UniProtKB/TrEMBL annotation, chain A:
GO terms for biological process: translation. CDD domains: Ribosomal_uL14. This is Large ribosomal subunit protein uL14m. One of its GO terms (cellular component) is mitochondrial large ribosomal subunit. SUPFAM superfamilies: Ribosomal protein L14. Pfam families: Ribosomal_L14 (PF00238).
TrEMBL record, chain B:
The keyword Transferase does not apply. Residues 212-235 are annotated as: Disordered. The keyword Ribonucleoprotein applies. InterPro entries: Ribosomal_bL19, Ribosomal_bL19_sf, Translation_prot_SH3-like_sf. This is 54s ribosomal protein subunit img1, mitochondrial. Residues 226-235 have a biased composition (Basic residues). Keywords: Ribonucleoprotein, Ribosomal protein. Belongs to the bacterial ribosomal protein bL19 family. GO terms for molecular function: structural constituent of ribosome. GO terms for biological process: translation. It comes from Acrodontium crateriforme. Pfam families: Ribosomal_L19. GO terms for cellular component: mitochondrial large ribosomal subunit.
Amino acid sequence: MRRYIQHHAYYTRTLLSTTSTAIVRRGAAVNMIQLKTMVNVIDNSGAAIAECVKVLKMKRAAKIGDRIIVVVQKQRNFGPESGGSVSVSAANKVRRGDIRHAVVVRTAKKYQRPDGSVVKFDDNACVLINKGGEPIGSRLNGVVGKELRNKQWSKILSLAPMHL
Amino acid sequence: MSLAPSSARPLACLKQALRQCRAERHQLRQYATAESHYPSLQTRYPAPSPGFRTSHATKQNRPEVNMKKIAVVPPPRSIKKVCPDPIEALYQSQLKTLDPTGARTRLFAKTNVDRAQVGDILLVRLKSGDPFSGVCINIRRRHSPIDTAVLLRNQLTRVGVEMWFKIYSPNVEGIEVVQRKQGRRARRAKLYYMRKPSHDMGSVEGVTAQYIRQRAGGTTRGKAGGQKKKSKSKK
């Protein structure tokens, strides 16, 4: 990780990943996305960590591709190159305390696919969307689950750098 | 006065009962004479001749000589002899379709010295979707050997990912050992400690890409893979 620090672009990433590793452990303990679960936000909407307050249309824990309602708990602090607190608020499309819809893209809970293989990620992650289902951010960083394809989240899939 | 002895000697009635019993038995013994008195007791068959023995009874007392013989069916063959181990037979029949060459079985056979073990980096090529590579941290042989599965761990975009693959799954095209475990063999059967940040191997994408390039023999395909990987890391 240290060798990337020279790059500014990497600098922001390193910061983000250090915050997310702290969350990974918390998320792994809960394992299922339900009320009060802290979820990583992996888009550039400006939120870093969000808390799940509702799993929509379900009486169970959310899986990959399920829609949830979250409260933004922690904002993303962009690197020093973005310049001061003014631009931080300008760059962020969401703020702390905002209630937003989101789609789960990774779960730390094992999920068995129809072909018998099982997939499990190290953290719980989501992507913020508006009520129409369009993603709020314009970029995603991080792998997302392939289950999104069957649930008509193709826009998120196309934004993602990798899907599994 | 008649009641008194019975209440005083409760077993007195036993004597009367035994007496009655004896009388009945005596009557039974004189059954032959009794049946002349009771027409319902008479048999259709002639009375046994004098000097009759029970051993004669089979021939003498059976008028249905021409009766149809009922064929005696031999007991069915014991299923234990037909198929001593049905589970094993089922496994073999499944292997014939799922692993005709036997390569997959050999790769994970415990008798094979060069088998895939935990700690090795494996590459699973899938029929649908991209190949997945990772450190094998668990090999699960459960119930039947046909259920054998491997747990691979890798890091993609710096997120730990674990996947279970059934080794005989029709969706799995091939499993290759990219790299053996470095140093000694693992001292555990399940390397779950590799989930801890202090023991995590990190991404094995680089090792896999190099392996794929080597296998391709430095062709354009391998180079393209390398370039693609470079651009990915630049992003």
